[in-house]
From TrEMBL:
Species: Salmonella muenchen
PANTHER family according to UniProt: FELS-1 PROPHAGE TRANSCRIPTIONAL REGULATOR, PTHR40661
InterPro entries with a match to the protein in the record: LexA-like, LexA/Signal_pep-like_sf, Peptidase_S24_S26A/B/C
Single GO MF descriptor: DNA binding
CDD domains registered for this protein in UniProt: S24_LexA-like (cd06529)
Residue ranges constituting the Peptidase S24/S26A/S26B/S26C domain according to the UniProt record: 18-103
Keywords recorded for this protein, A-Z: DNA-binding, Transcription, Transcription regulation
Protein name: Helix-turn-helix transcriptional regulator
Length: 121
């Protein structure tokens, strides 16, 4: 994971983007992998609300399962939590009562920001 130490926005833009959340509750992660494409592309930045440390309604989360960290869409259906990749090349899987002890939420993704770069030689 690449660490970004600071990104500055003016007060109005920050309020519009983050709804007044304290900076201490936000983390920025540079995404690797294409499992969430086209919603989140490799290299995009995601802004994560780390005050959310359990499932808090359907959405995109950063979570751990066993010893791996994931950025995936979570959707609750009766008796299980679906783990969905937006890229159709990846299969969905589920978290059930039998394996929920291996699952932990690190935060909920609020916003993604593209990092597409253009070279001008």
């Amino acid at each position: 994971i690449d660490v970004i130490h600071a990104i500055e926005y003016n007060k109005d833009k920050a309020l519009a983007m983050f709804g007044g959340r304290p900076a201490a509750e936000l983390k920025v992660i540079n995404v690797r992998g294409d499992s969430m494409a086209p919603t989140i592309e490799p290299g995009d930045l995601i802004f994560v609300d780390i005050s959310i440390n359990q499932f808090d309604g359907d959405g995109i989360y950063v979570f751990g399962f066993d010893d791996k960290i994931y950025v995936k869409r979570l959707q609750m259906i009766p008796d299980k939590l679906l783990v969905i990749s937006d890229n159709t090349n990846y299969r969905e899987w589920s978290i059930t009562k039998d394996n929920e002890c291996r699952f932990g939420v690190f935060g909920k993704v609020l916003i993604s920001q593209t990092q597409s770069l253009k070279r001008h030689n």
